[in-house]
Design goal:
By secondary structure, this protein is mainly alpha-helical. It has a domain of 91 residues. 74% of the residues lie in helices and 0% in strands. Helix 1 packs antiparallel against helix 3 and helix 3 packs parallel to helix 5. The longest helix is centred in the last third of the chain and has 22 residues. It is elongated. The model has no long low-confidence stretch (mean pLDDT 91).
């Protein structure tokens, strides 16, 4: 982890974020199919966007030499979600979902490499300067 002022709070936020994503992945997905009938492939876009955000979030807190581990960990997390969904009668596991997760991860990692990596240090500094 980067030399953050509040590492425990960042770790708690990480667990909250990962738990929230898992919870959303196992609840019924009626809203995603019925609420937007004209949006084909919405599920895949949501998978990709979710995992791009997860990659950007995690790379904000860790040094670049950890990015490979972040990529591996989040890819395994995506696989774990698909395994969990395969065990729930009202959900389904799809290879396409895992592919969308990986595409989102790669996109998030590229953005982190070239633009946003280490953003949490900047956020802490900004908050410190703004609020003391």
């Amino acid at each position: 982890m980067l030399p953050l002022q509040y590492p425990g709070r960042w770790r708690a936020a990480n667990w909250l974020l990962l738990s929230s994503v898992f919870l959303l992945a196992i609840v019924p997905a009626i809203w995603a199919t019925d609420a937007m009938p004209g949006w084909t492939g919405l599920d895949k876009w949501l998978h990709g966007l979710t995992f791009a955000v997860l990659a950007l979030w995690m790379t904000g807190q860790y040094a670049r030499d950890s990015y490979g581990w972040i990529l591996l960990g989040l890819a395994l997390y995506g696989a774990l979600i698909e395994v969990g969904q395969s065990m729930i009668p009202y959900r389904s596991a799809e290879w396409g979902d895992l592919a969308a997760d990986l595409a989102g991860l790669l996109a998030g990692m590229l953005v982190a490499l070239f633009a946003t990596g280490g953003w949490s240090l900047h956020a802490e500094n900004w908050l410190k300067n703004r609020f003391g």
